[in-house]
Write a structure and sequence with these properties.
single chain, OB fold (Dihydrolipoamide Acetyltransferase, E2P), 6-stranded antiparallel sheet, 3-stranded antiparallel sheet
Length: 126
């Protein structure tokens, strides 16, 4: 089930917008494909992100995968719990497994992302 209140990238990141802040994580589909996540590397607070550029790495028992920013902006907060509990990304990818919060540089970028129906279609294509 893909939450309808989020926007998505083709690289399986999600974004939840509240005002000018975007909370970012990876989708349940991505977490399931990766398998058990054992390490998450995130940028520091204050780092600038560019839309669709790499912002970190997630490591699972199966693979190491880059993370891509859904929007440009400045990191305002990271989920420190992931340092000791990276499995939160698997167990609650849209809640406790969030990765970072970003002050959005260009709100129009959100409109370029997939909605839930578009993301559903993407993962259905395989």
């Amino acid at each position: 089930m893909v939450p309808t209140d989020l926007r998505y990238t083709k690289d399986h990141e999600w974004v939840r917008v509240a005002g000018d802040v975007a909370t970012i994580g990876i989708t349940k589909f991505a977490a399931d494909q990766l398998g058990d996540i054992v390490f998450v590397e995130l940028p520091g607070v204050g780092m600038a992100l560019e839309q669709f550029a790499t912002f970190g790495v997630v490591e699972s028992v199966k693979a190491v995968s880059d993370l891509f920013a859904p929007v440009s902006g400045t990191v305002t907060e990271t989920n420190d719990a992931l340092a000791s509990q990276p499995e939160l990304v698997n167990s609650d990818p849209y809640g406790a497994g969030w990765m970072l919060k970003v002050r959005i540089a260009d709100p129009a970028q959100v409109d370029t992302l997939l909605d839930a129906a578009g993301y559903d279609a993407l993962i259905a294509e395989g």
